[in-house]
């Protein structure tokens, strides 16, 4: 029983990394671009029995690669914010699957390393860096959930005793065809944030693997064909543009080759500069207040894949007549209730919410006190205002959740969800056991009581950039009850809430009185002239 | 009945072009303001701006014309006979009294008109133009080094512009009505179209108000 629930959990969480895309044809333009054919390297002409063995071979030529990667957030899952908060997947609690700690078997499938099981993982090991997960070009490289980010090189029954076989992959072939990163390799993890395709971000899902122009004007597979690294221009394996360190406002110029810049290359301005609208110059008057994305990403989840808008963990735990966790689907066939997870709301073509954002994000961390009954707890509050001179109006996805917390200690709970053991929630649907194990993993005290608290997390919307003709028109915001209705501190022509009510009242009253006056005068003239006749 | 050529060709063109532009800008302007939806905000804003530049161009010609022809003197206010004219519009017009003012080429506006048009030209129009240009170029204003100017919010610029628009609307309503108060309802309008005003003077003994 337990095994079956766990299997369902593993399948539902969809954490299997799979970069399904075609390898370049031999002799094609793509194949010829590189001056090195890795299949001819003697270091790679061998049988590899594990991921680290491949990495060892890579490092024999690319001697500094792992040292570079050790310094990146992709490796450390750790980021200290300028405000001094310790962030990163390793530390934060979110309102999806809440936390990495105690769920390493599943979550760490997306770590760019091999075998991060617990806090004893050796972050200084060079061979533990996974080169292939980013540099695979075959689409055959997979890291199944449940293996702590390890690859399976021999057919393995998993979970043990289930009779289900996880097929082995052939590392030699994959290693001989390494190349640059692609939308598929980055997307293998980033499209699946939150445990499934499109779940977390809303502007990142597998529809971007080979998108049409209408979905993303830059990544258009038939056109500009940008890969992630075209904008997230990487140096020394450092990928700029992390949402942990967002750039809300870039006042720099467009980057030229060969010149050094202080601004990061990821922003729109890094290519388009400060006055990108050539035909309608008036539009450039907006760039001091409005982020490019606000008009140019009119909606998210536009590629046919829904994103998760809310998640209520408090309703989890129901079983169907067969004793298995209950699954409910909506008319489109998307899961809206899962006994191991609770209720979801899924949505496509979502209009973002809009806020002033200056790049500062304040997190509610696991140690912070949370109080039930007031406003929802902000997992990550985007800061900004109309008047701080650093903020722009940004589109965001607000993800609303209701998640486990300790009502006595008043802290967010670390929940042990994934694992083939007695206390994992996805195995036995027991909150107290799951939270007890989760909290113990991070050495946090737990009262033994579990309650649920409303939370919100914010996600900047920046991908799925529409072609210019599909960007927002003026009246999307220059109107009452338009997209920016709730954005304070700015006068928007056409938005009635900005009007000085007294002026409109007095103005129309004077016009009406003038009209009445002249009509009365005219009427009197007519009456008088009639009488004379 | 004698006729006098009052409104010259350019003057008539200027008047009607300006009338059309002002009415259009009132309609599109209040749509931009958010009072109603008619053309769609984007079109309203684009056309309002185009009309504004057109009117500025027209104004440059009109100012040049007024000064080269000396016609600007038509707007010098006078207190002479002003009470008589006010009395005419509030009483005389109903009792059939003659208009106390007689139009001549040198003095084509009665004292009330002089005052009203002067008010439009020296107060409402400048208010509209200054606030309107500030509205168009507020980004550039905000970038200025002078804090007193850079600190002006778009909201206050819009407030002044809207207030001036309401004044213009009230003027327009009054002006349209008063254009029907000639010796026949269409007499003034006809004169503004053809340039020729009937020298309608039912009582030749009445003292001429002409200067």
Tell me about this structure.
The complex is a heterodimer of chains A (533) and B (211). Residues 10-15 and 19-24 of chain A have low confidence and may be disordered. In chain A, the strands form 5 sheets. In chain A, strands 7, 8, 9, 10, 11, 13, 15, 16 and 17 form a 9-stranded mixed β-sheet that branches. Chain A starts with a helix and ends with a helix. Chain A is globular, with a radius of gyration of 28 Å. Among the domains of chain A are: 307-476, no CATH class; 501-533. With 533 residues, chain A is an alpha+beta fold. Chain A has helices at 2-13, 29-33, 51-61, 65-69, 73-76, 104-107, 132-135, 171-176, 183-190, 228-231, 269-272, 292-296, 425-428, 431-441, 501-532, and strands at residues 17-18, 79-80, 86-87, 142-143, 156-157, 165-166, 307-312, 327-329, 335-338, 342-347, 353-357, 361-363, 377-378, 380-382, 392-406, 411-412, 451-460. With 211 residues, chain B is an all-alpha fold. Chain B has one domain: Transmembrane di-heme cytochromes, Chain C (Fumarate Reductase Cytochrome B subunit), CATH 1.20.950.20. Chain B has 8 helices and 2 strands; from the N terminus they run βααααααααβ. Chain B has helices spanning 9-33, 41-69, 82-95, 111-136, 138-142, 147-150, 154-178, 187-194; strands spanning 3-5, 196-198. A two-stranded antiparallel ribbon of chain B has the order 1-2. The longest helix of chain B is centred in the N-terminal third of the chain and has 29 residues, at 41-69. Chain B is elongated, with a radius of gyration of 20 Å. The two termini of chain B are 22 Å apart. The relative contact order of chain B is 0.15. Chains A and B meet through helix 15 of A and helix 2, helix 3, helix 5 and helix 7 of B.
* Rg estimate of chain A, integer Å: 28 Å
> Percent helix among the residues of chain A?
10-25%
Rg of chain B, Å, rounded = 20 Å
Number of helices of chain B: 8
Structural class of chain B: mainly alpha
Q: Output the CATH homologous superfamily of chain B.
A: Transmembrane di-heme cytochromes, Chain C
* Uncertain spans of chain B: 203-211
Alpha-beta content class of chain A: alpha+beta
Main β sheet profile of chain A:
9 strands, mixed
How would you spell out the order of helices and strands of chain B?
Answer: EHHHHHHHHE
Mean pLDDT of chain A: 93
Count the E strands of chain A: 17
Most extensive chain interface and residues per partner: A-B, 35 and 35 residues
> Per DSSP, what share of the residues of chain A sits in E-state strands of 2 or more residues?
5-15%
Beta fraction of chain B: under 5%
Q: How many separate structural domains of chain B?
A: 1
């Amino acid at each position: 029983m337990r095994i079956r629930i766990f299997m369902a959990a593993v399948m539902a969480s969809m954490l299997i990394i799979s970069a399904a895309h075609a390898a370049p044809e031999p002799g094609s333009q793509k194949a010829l671009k590189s001056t090195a054919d890795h299949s001819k390297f003697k270091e790679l002409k061998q049988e590899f029995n594990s991921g680290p063995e491949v990495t060892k071979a890579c490092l024999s030529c690319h001697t500094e690669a792992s040292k570079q990667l050790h310094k990146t957030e992709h490796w450390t899952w750790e980021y200290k914010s300028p405000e001094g908060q310790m962030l990163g997947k390793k530390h934060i609690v979110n309102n999806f699957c809440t936390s990495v700690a105690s769920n390493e078997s599943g979550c760490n499938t997306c770590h760019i390393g091999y075998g991060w099981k617990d806090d004893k993982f050796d972050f200084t090991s060079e061979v533990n860096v996974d080169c292939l997960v980013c540099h695979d070009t075959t689409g055959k490289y997979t890291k199944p959930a449940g293996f702590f980010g390890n690859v399976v090189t021999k057919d393995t029954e998993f979970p043990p005793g289930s009779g289900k076989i996880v097929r082995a992959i052939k590392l030699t072939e994959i290693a001989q065809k390494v190349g640059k990163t692609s939308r598929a390799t980055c997307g293998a993890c980033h499209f699946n944030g939150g445990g499934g395709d499109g779940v977390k971000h809303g502007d990142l899902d597998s529809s971007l693997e080979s998108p049409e122009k209408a979905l993303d004007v830059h990544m258009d597979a038939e056109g500009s064909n940008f890969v992630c690294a075209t904008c997230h221009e990487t140096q020394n394996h450092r990928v700029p543009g992390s949402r942990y360190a967002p750039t809300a406002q870039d006042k720099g110029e467009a980057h030229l080759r060969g010149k050094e810049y202080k601004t990061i290359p990821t922003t729109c301005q890094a290519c388009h500069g400060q006055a990108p609208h050539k035909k309608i110059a008036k539009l450039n008057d907006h760039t001091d207040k409005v982020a490019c994305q606000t008009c140019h990403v009119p909606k998210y989840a536009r590629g046919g894949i829904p994103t998760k808008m809310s998640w209520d963990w408090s309703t989890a735990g129901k079983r169907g007549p067969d004793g298995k966790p209950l699954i409910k689907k909506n008319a489109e066939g998307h899961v809206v209730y899962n006994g191991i997870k609770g209720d979801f709301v899924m949505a496509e073509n979502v209009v973002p919410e809009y806020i002033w954002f200056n790049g500062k994000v304040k997190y509610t961390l696991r140690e912070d006190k949370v109080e039930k009954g007031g406003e929802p707890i902000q997992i990550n509050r985007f800061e900004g205002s109309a008047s701080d001179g650093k903020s722009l109006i940004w589109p965001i996805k607000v993800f609303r959740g209701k998640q486990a917390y300790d009502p006595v200690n008043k802290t967010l709970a670390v929940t042990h969800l994934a694992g083939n053991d007695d206390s994992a929630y996805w195995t036995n649907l027991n909150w107290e056991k799951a939270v007890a194990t989760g909290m113990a993993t991070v050495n946090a005290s737990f009262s033994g009581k579990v309650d649920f608290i409303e939370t919100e997390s914010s996600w900047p919307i920046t991908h799925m950039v529409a072609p210019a003709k599909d960007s927002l028109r003026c009246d999307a915001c220059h109107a009452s009850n338009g997209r920016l209705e709730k954005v304070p501190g700015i006068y928007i022509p056409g938005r009635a809430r900005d009007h000085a009510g007294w002026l409109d009242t007095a103005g129309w009253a004077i016009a009406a009185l003038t009209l009445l006056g002249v009509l009365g005068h005219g009427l009197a003239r007519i009456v008088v002239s009639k009488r004379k006749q | 009945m004698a006729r006098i050529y009052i409104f010259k060709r350019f003057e008539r063109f200027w008047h009607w072009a300006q009338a059309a532009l002002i009415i259009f800008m009132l309609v599109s302007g209040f749509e931009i303001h958010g009072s109603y939806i008619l053309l769609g905000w984007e079109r309203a804003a684009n056309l309002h701006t185009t009309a504004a530049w057109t009117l500025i161009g027209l104004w440059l010609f009109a100012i040049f014309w007024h000064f080269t022809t000396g016609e600007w003197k038509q707007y010098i206010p006078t207190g002479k006979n002003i009470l008589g004219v006010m009395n005419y519009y509030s009483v005389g017009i109903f009792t059939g009294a003659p208009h106390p003012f007689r139009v001549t080429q040198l003095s084509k506006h009665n004292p009330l008109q002089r005052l009203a048009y002067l008010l439009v030209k020296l107060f409402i129009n400048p208010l509209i133009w200054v606030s309107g240009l500030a509205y168009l170029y507020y980004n550039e204003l905000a970038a200025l080094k002078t804090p007193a100017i850079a600190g002006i919010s778009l909201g206050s610029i819009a407030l002044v512009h809207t207030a001036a628009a309401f004044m213009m609307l009230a003027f327009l309503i009054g002006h349209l009505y008063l254009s029907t108060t000639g010796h026949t309802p269409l007499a003034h309008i006809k004169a503004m179209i053809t340039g020729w005003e009937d020298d309608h003077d039912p009582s030749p003994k009445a003292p001429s108000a002409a200067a």
